UniProtKB/TrEMBL annotation:
The chain crosses the membrane at residues 9-32. The lineage of its organism: Eukaryota, Viridiplantae, Streptophyta, Embryophyta, Tracheophyta. CDD domains: GH20_HexA_HexB-like. This is Beta-hexosaminidase. It catalyses: Hydrolysis of terminal non-reducing N-acetyl-D-hexosamine residues in N-acetyl-beta-D-hexosaminides. It comes from Gossypium darwinii (Darwin's cotton). GO terms for biological process: carbohydrate metabolic process; glycosaminoglycan metabolic process. Residues 44-161 form the Beta-hexosaminidase eukaryotic type N-terminal domain.
Amino acid sequence: MRICGGKRLMFQVSVPPISIFATIICLTLPFLPPILSLQSAVNVWPKPRLVSWPKPLARSLSTNFTINSPYHQNLQPAIIRYLRLFRTEHHHPLITPSVNVSTSSPHLQTLSIDISDPAAPLQHGVNETYSLSISEEGETANLTAETAWGAMRGLETFSQLVWGNPSVVPVGLYIWDAPLFAHRGVMLDTSRNYYGVEDILRTIEAMSANKLNVFHWHVTDSHSFPLMVPSEPELAAKGAYGPDMIYSPSDVAKIVQFGLEHGVRVLPEIDSPGHTGSWAEAYPEIVACANMFWLPAGSDWGDRLASEPGTGHLNPLNPKTYQVLKNVIRDVSILFPETFYHGGADEIVPGCWKADPTIQSFIANGGTLSQLLETFVNSTLPYILSLNRTVVYWEDVLLDGIVKVDSSFLPKEHTILQTWNSGTSNTKMIVEAGYRAIVSSSDFYYLDCGHGDFLGNDSQYDQQAGGESLNGGSWCGPFKTWQTIYDHDITYGLSEDEAKLVLGGEVALWSEQADPTVLDARIWPRTSAMAETLWSGNRDEYGKKRSAEATDRLNEWRYRMVSRGVKAEPIQPLWCVRNPGMCNAVESS
């Protein structure tokens, strides 16, 4: 809200009269049992925390429908966007619901938005609560939110409630909604394969529709350095795959602003000291074991130089390492206003550091690899904190079995650890140590798993007799189905106090075998499953897992995402949708 002379400046947008062909959307009523037919369900995804709709009634939306809202520079584009969606989406459901449309009630003319704290910035922990009320009579629906970001969530919900020709909305409806977890994200690796800006924007838009709020951008790695850093331009000029595969500062500004207009934070990750082989194209003197074959002939796994092709670790003993890295950190903090900075610090491979002569001398004089990592962290973490950032690291920095730092180097009030190994046990270890956690367990949330491996001349696949499937051909196989993701409880096995340290979760798409041609299908609708569990949970009002009930709703939501331009993969044959219950594992009684 902008206050001018004590007056509230209102922003109003009108929808011109339009011709709409007959459509009806599905709605989901959480008070009814899971076996309820989708024909009478209120299908909002993620499922709201509280829905009251005692009678299946609806009435028409005016062709001159407007939205009244206090002015907010990021909410205003969202209002325009959603009104355009009302005008052009024309969603036709897979199964037509049974709803009584009133012909006597006046048309709904206005959605009135009220925001308590319009100045609240988009940052971790911002209040996303909203309530939506559409009465049986009257010309105005009311959307109330604490912040502009909560209002955006409410607008998305309203957009999923519009149907018909003329357009209609449910009435006598009340929704109260708020997320269970503050951090709900998608991690995308843009180093191994490049994604254009439009691909990233499309992903952020789909995230917003699923009420996700963090785009974790793993922008650099050993394979390429596609980010143009103004003070270190040679890193991208020499480390990117090509001049047409670089994210310029203007590209970053566009992505960050797009995120703000969709309620999605853009969290940058500059992984270091490992995963930095691409830095050697500009600064070979600061990178150990760069451009070497990852698994020397005759070597055991413990003697590898990297865990996959693409070698290179920054050398913590070279002062120039910190000169370059601090320039990168400073510029990234300017490019990205996000208050979290992800420093990576995962997968320190002993063989890589041991291949460097200066590190060999350090070890010969009694030094250890863990001391090297402690030197690195102690030389960079305070600088990151001086830029008013909270540091996020992958779990390895504390939990790795060989190279890790003492917890005294990681102040708990300024450090967040992101899990990816050992299922729920590593989350437990992190919160027991008093750290906040973001959960990205590869057992549940890694979207690249089960798609094979990318190594060439690999004889393990020469199995004429069949038999073992090699776990999908990938280290983290099998494929993580949407049900696997939906049924995962990220606080499983934690005490109530420990669970409070879990900020939320992220799915991760590593891009060894992904690029823009498969991006949408790899992410959606499996990520929608996580989105609902982190927003409103995966259990019904009786405490039972609701993945069975969610199947029909996710089919409908996937179909709607496709109509919005997201090429989400199907989860069932269309026949299953048209024949509810017939594709279940167990026949419903």
